[in-house]
Every structure is written in structure tokens, then in C-alpha cells.
Amino acid sequence: MNVGLYLPQWSGAWDGSDPRWRDVLDTARAAEDAAFASVWVIGHHYLPFEQGRPWNLWDPWSLLAGVAACTERIELGPLVSCTAYANPALLARRAATVDEISGGRLIMGIGGGYFDAEFAAVGIPADHKVDRFEEAVQIITALLRNGEVEFTGRYYQADLALDLPRIRPEGPPILIGASHPRMMRLVARYAQLWNGWFPFSTDPIGDLREQRRALDRACTEGDRDPGTLGRTASVAVGVAGRQPAYGPYDMVNLGADKGEIADRLLQLQAEGIDHVQLCLTPATPAGVEAMVPVVEKVG
């Protein structure tokens, strides 16, 4: 199993303090040194929660470019980049640039968005999210895989080419975060990887099993072999007695100690998950070091 790590990108993420660029980079380099497979940034920009302090987040694509330039082996990507927050053709060009900087290590995670308060805060339309995403994913996949696109839809239009050398002719792999039937069908049609989000689940194994079955059905209905689709999952992990949190809300810790965390990850692997992303608390080099025995056991 590949083990990935969310980088400390948001308000309070640096063990209670607001992270600076050097903190993000130190954590990414610690993860690379510790044989983590990947590092990830959240695709949000501003999360005004109903309670507690709003989250401000460093721009995900700027961070990815910096991490790409300052690491050598580790894969990286957004989890996930909301296609509503940028023109999809320009988002694809951003992704191609980061893939070039990284030497071909980008995983292109995308989704349709869900946090209406963030949409409102930055003045982005929140209606017809899946309709908009379905158009955006066609533009993004065409540009990244074929280097050109000609598309006219209800929400987006694009007629351009990515007339630059591409480090991977087939483009970076597309990962789509999805849980509902229509989005699952888009995963089956366009993605190489699927992501499920389980940091608040009290039964991630059972919930994963249901989502995996739904994903298999979507693949079968779309005449795709389910075995050709990679499966990833995000889970919450606290070390040294720490309680993982998402803004003001507690997440469900995957295990009480390193042995239990490793066992639960292996259970996820038995359910078909080959890549996990840890919402780690604390997301610092010390937290990364504490997880090394787990990474070694499940990797």
C-alpha cells in the first residue's frame, strides 16, 4: 500500500500555529525521506465554518509548484482541485506545468466542490455543480491526454492546444473524488484513480465497502473493467495522543496506537485500497517520523 500525507497548508495546521512556506516544505521533505509515497494539498482557499475560526489556506497550486521544485521522488497532487474555482482549460495548463516541474510526479486530483459557503465567499456560482464538473472534466482530460481541445458546452468553451513539450505524452493520471452515483459514473468514464473521503467515518471499512460496490457498478454499467481503476482513500490519524481535527470539528482517529493504525490500513488494503492519504495530526516532521513504523509495515 502507498501511504500519502496531507501537507500543513491551512490556518493552525502547523501544530496549532499558522504554517509558513518553510513549514510546508520541511514536512514534504520529511515525508519523502521517510518513504511516504505522496504528499497532497487541499483544493480549498477559504472555509468559513459555522463555528470557530475560518480556515485560510495557502493557494494549492502555488504550493504544489514549490514542492515539485524542491523534492525529487515523491508524488504530489491536489486532493482535490475544485474545477469550479478556475477555468478548466487554464487549470489543465497549470497541471501540465506542475507535472513538468516535478519531472512527471503529479496526480491530477479534481472534483466538483461541495462547500457552498466557500463558493459564496469568493463569488463563484454554486448551482449545477455536477453539470459544470462534467463539462470541465472533458476539457481537462482532453488537454492533458491529447494536448488539444475543442469543446462548447453550456458552462464552458475551449478551443486551444497545449503546444508545449509534455513530460508524459499521456498526461498525469486523473483522480476524481466522488461518493454519489452520477459522480461515480464520471469516475468510471474519465479517471485512472478514485478517492473516497473517510476522516469523519466511524466505520471506514464498512463505508468503503459500500462505495467500492457502487464504483464497481458504475464501471460495469460503463463497460469498464473495475480492475482498471485505482482506489485511494483519505483517513484521519493522530499520533502521540493527539486528536485529529478539520477546522473546529474533530475527525475520527483511525487507531489508538501505531499497531492499530497499521492494522486498519491493512484492512483498507484488503478492501481494494492501494493508496491512502493521511490527515495527520500533527502534520509536522515530528509527526511524519512517528508514522515511519506504520509506513514500513504496510508499504
Query: What overall form do the CA principal axes indicate?
Result: globular
Average pLDDT rating:
96
Q: What's the main sheet like?
A: 9 strands, parallel
Strand order of the largest sheet: 5-2-1-15-12-11-10-7-6
As a percent range, the share of helical residues equals 25-40%
- Total of helices: 10
Radius of gyration: 18 Å
- SSE string, helix = H, strand = E? EHEEEHEEHEHHEEEHEHEEEHEHH
**Strand tally, please?**
15
Helix/strand class: alpha/beta
| CA(first)-CA(last) distance | 5 Å
Strand content range:
15-25%
User: Which regions contain 5 or more consecutive residues with pLDDT less than 50?
Assistant: none
Would you mind describing this structure in some detail?
The chain is α/β, with parallel strands linked by helices. Helix content is 39%, strand content 21%. It is built from ten helices and 15 strands. The chain has helices at residues 21-33, 60-70, 88-102, 116-121, 129-146, 181-190, 204-221, 258-270, 285-290, 292-298, and strands at 2-6, 38-41, 46-47, 55-56, 75-78, 81-82, 108-111, 148-152, 157-161, 174-177, 193-197, 230-238, 245-246, 249-250, 275-281. The strands form four sheets. It has a nine-stranded parallel beta sheet. A two-stranded antiparallel ribbon has the order 3-4. β10 (174-177), α6 and β11 form a beta-alpha-beta unit. α2 (60-70) runs parallel beside α3 (88-102). The chain starts with a strand and ends with a helix.
